[in-house]
Amino acid sequence: MSRTSIIEVRGLCNRFGRNSVHEDLDLDLYRGEILGVVGGSGTGKSVLLRSIVGLNRPVAGEVRLFGQNLLALPAAERSRLEQRLGVLFQGGALFSSLTVRENVALPLIEHAGLSRRDAEELAEVKLALSGLAPHAGDLYPASLSGGMVKRVSLARALALDPDVVFLDEPTAGLDPIGAAAFDQLILTLRNALGLTVFMVTHDLDSLWTACDRIAVLSQKRVLVADEPAKVAQYDDPWIRDYFNGPRGRAAYQAVQES
Ligand SMILES: Nc1ncnc2c1ncn2[C@@H]1O[C@H](COP(=O)(O)OP(=O)(O)OP(=O)(O)O)[C@@H](O)[C@H]1O
């Protein structure tokens, strides 16, 4: 099957003072895939995500989105391109003073120029798509469960009909049933909407259940990016411990039995 790369990261370098996070990192994201990004704590998974969506300026390298070098574009074109990306941040990053409906409507008002009324109507559609009950729109973020926060954040990430969604640890803090339901939601949305998904995760169940490929960050670069079964066999001490430790084996077994 031929694959179309819609995001190409080449020679990416990120440094914060003396802390070198990425050196010469390459990665492709293919149209329609769910890519899981894993690595030890502090290996730069979130910094990579932020570099691709334009929230972190790398010291060197290229990020090509849909064939265009993001970092070389004038601000207006860059912003247009960035609107084809939706982001679900760790913790949700919802505005606490706005209702759920207003949170999801905001990007539609600010970036798509919709009236408040139209934006709120469309927000309801996105909330339903993310598996939330109709009354959820009236709630404020403080009264939501962890699973609901993730779903509202997903609805907001989907507000502008992005081609690609970036999920930063979407199942962190959810109980196993909530996490499994979220994995299924991501799979359903990818299949129904043709989304491409970049998912930073520590969740072994998500990796085996939802991901087409896994990229492992180690030693400041992508050590390997391949199908889950191939990555699990890769000869590297961190990968061996991660996939073949008790939790890794249990997650693999659960997927085999399902
Ligand atoms: N804005 C920043 N200023 C300075 N250092 C930063 C900044 N953002 C990230 N870092 C550093 O970059 C490194 C990678 O951070 P990052 O959050 O990407 O790691 P991660 O792989 O996502 O970790 P975790 O799995 O623990 O969430 C860390 O050493 C972090 O301290």
Automatic annotation (TrEMBL):
Sorted UniProt keywords: ATP-binding, Nucleotide-binding, Transport
Domain ABC transporter per the UniProt entry, residue ranges: 7-244
InterPro entries: AAA+_ATPase, ABC_transporter-like_ATP-bd, P-loop_NTPase
Annotated GO MF terms: ATP binding; ATP hydrolysis activity
SUPFAM superfamilies associated with the record: P-loop containing nucleoside triphosphate hydrolases
The UniProt record lists the keyword ATP-binding: yes
Name of this chain's protein: Phospholipid/cholesterol/gamma-HCH transport system ATP-binding protein
Organism the protein comes from: Marinobacterium stanieri
